Model the fold of this input.
Amino acid sequence: MSAPPTGDLPATVRLQELIGRVVVDAAGRRLGRVVDVVAELWGDELRVTTLLVGPRAWASRFGATGREEGRRVRWEEIAALTPRIALRSVAAPESREATQ
Done:
């Protein structure tokens, strides 16, 4: 899979390099682990556009009803991929409403 070009991030990332990784905001606060991704077809390749993060994303992946989708992190929000996936800004606390 490739990802939209963003600063110093690599152009190509393997899915297994993302799944299970810890995501932190700019203040270093842990937001959860990547449980799934959203990708779009760009020509003949898939590009990751969004990471699905945290326990709610995990529950919704297995069809839990009445649950939110979990935290969605757009690829453009990512500042670094190592050693944790770090965001460019401080994340707002998750609310009971779906986070987009």
In short: Strands lie at 22-24, 30-42, 45-53, 71-74, 78-80, 85-87.
